Amino acid sequence: MATTKTGKTGKTGNKGDGAKTASTANQIGRRLRQLRKDHDWTLAEVAQRTGISAGTLSKLEHGKTELNFTSVNKLANGLGLPVTDLTNPASGMQGRRAITLGGQGAVFEASDMEYEVLCSDVSNHKQGYLKATVKSRRFDPEMPWHRHNGQEFLYVLSGKLELYTELYEPVQLDAGDSILFDSSMGHQYVSLGRKDAQILMSMLLEGYQNVSDIFRT
After folding, report:
1. Most CB atoms closer than 10 Å: which of 19, 28, 48, 138?
2. What is the dihedral of CA 71, 74, 76, 81, to 10 degrees?
């Protein structure tokens, strides 16, 4: 998963989007550097804990690379932290309210989806709330399934979504429709119609994986 280029307007490719992507990566890199300093961890020790190479971690700290959504979860799990402690360092405070202004969440991009992480500044929570744009236009049998622990809830904001799963026939959902399913079952998302479908998602972040994701270096 590379990084998202979604701006507040929903359009792609503008200068502000690039700055936002860089800001997300820099924020995670700064947080990692601070955590290493606080716990006296070397890059090699963090690499051993997380399975992410020391070279990639060093580039992340210096703002020279960005992690995909799966890898941010991998980093957090390896360090024994909720993922929100990386995407929003203020989450260490004992807050019980979270607000994300439009277009201001941490952003990530996959080959089939663009994600914005919402309301991540509540301490120690492992549930993820995401706004996503579905870029895929057809089911790709060669693409590995998305899968993760727990359940996933989807609500279609706009457009038309087709959801493929390992155990059921594909289901088509229009704006206003929703679905809840066992997300350990492999699943893929496809947009139907002229415009990309936009959806709200809620899911357990722990154990999230999409093996088609890659580091962007």
Report:
1. 28
2. 160
